[in-house]
Design brief:
This protein has a seven-stranded parallel sheet. With 245 residues, the chain is α/β, with parallel strands linked by helices. The radius of gyration is 20 Å and the shape is elongated. Strand 1, helix 2 and strand 2 form a beta-alpha-beta unit. 47% of the residues lie in helices and 12% in strands. It has helices spanning 3-8, 20-32, 49-55, 59-63, 71-75, 98-106, 125-128, 148-162, 179-195, 207-218, 222-244, and strands spanning 10-15, 37-41, 66-68, 80-84, 95-96, 112-116, 133-135. The chain folds into two domains: 3-172, 3-Layer(aba) Sandwich (Alpha/beta knot); 179-244, Helicase, Ruva Protein, domain 3, CATH 1.10.8. It contains eleven helices and seven strands.
């Protein structure tokens, strides 16, 4: 697979960006490293002259950027989702460095999303629940604030550096299930757990979140998702037969 083809699978997603100049600067950072697919979720101002000015020649990325109303919609065709965050979370996520992130991204044969959150607050816990891994950029503990475009540049640079290393790795990998397939999987799993009385929908506590962490870490393949959903269906049918008898 050629270098450009490897990068073609990668989509940078910016969620809830307030300042349009940051969108343009992020597009410029992407283009310098050969990334071309930009997705925006609920940008406050876009299109914008400020975004075009800050893009400084990456106008084509802005012109072709896809805009989505919801985060879930922006992920549907993606098979690996990386969420970036500077904040420590109460519930731990599988966490990667930018280099480790690039290694996983470049060996995934399907579409990949690298997600960046809001300038002030980043991604919510609910949004991170849809990510397979959390990516954290090491910074000074006394001043850890990193500009959005700078964060995009760091991840894009690691991807560029890793291309030659992983040039032939894709031949050995199989495509994981898409975000859309996994969303259906989680709905089916939750309903099955409710049907058998294991999950109280009025008091789910942290069970659903822990299950998301577990399966996102494993990264199920599409055939494996089908197997599990077959098990869920058989379990539901068995439970119904018990209730009738």
């Amino acid at each position: 697979m050629k270098n450009d083809e490897m990068l073609e699978r990668i989509h940078v997603i910016l969620v809830g960006v307030t300042h349009p100049g940051n969108i343009g600067a992020a597009a410029r950072a992407m283009k310098t490293m050969g990334l071309s697919h930009l997705r925006l979720v609920q940008p406050k101002h876009f299109p914008s002259a400020d975004a075009t000015a800050r893009a400084a020649g990456a106008d084509d990325l802005l012109a072709n950027a896809q805009v989505f109303d919801t985060f879930e919609e922006s992920l549907q065709d993606c098979h690996l989702i990386m969420g970036t965050s500077a904040r420590r979370r109460r519930i731990s996520w599988p966490t990667l460095t930018p280099k480790q992130c690039a290694d996983k991204v470049l060996t995934c044969p399907g579409k990949v999303a690298i997600v960046f959150g809001r300038e002030q607050s980043g991604l919510t816990n609910e949004e991170l629940d849809l990510c397979h891994f959390l990516v954290q950029i090491s910074s000074s503990p006394t001043f850890s604030s990193l500009n959005l475009a700078a964060a995009v540049q760091i991840l894009a640079y690691e991807l560029r550096c890793g291309i030659e290393t992983h040039h032939d790795d894709l031949k050995m990998n199989r495509e994981p299930a898409s975000a859309e397939a996994m969303a259906q999987f989680y709905q089916h799993l939750e309903q099955t757990l409710i049907d058998i009385g294991f999950l109280d929908p009025k008091n789910p506590r942290q069970l659903k979140r822990h299950l998301h962490r577990f399966f996102n870490r494993i990264q199920l393949l599409k055939p494996e998702v089908n197997i599990f959903r077959g098990i869920f269906t058989a379990t539901q049918e068995y439970q119904k037969s018990k209730e009738k008898s």
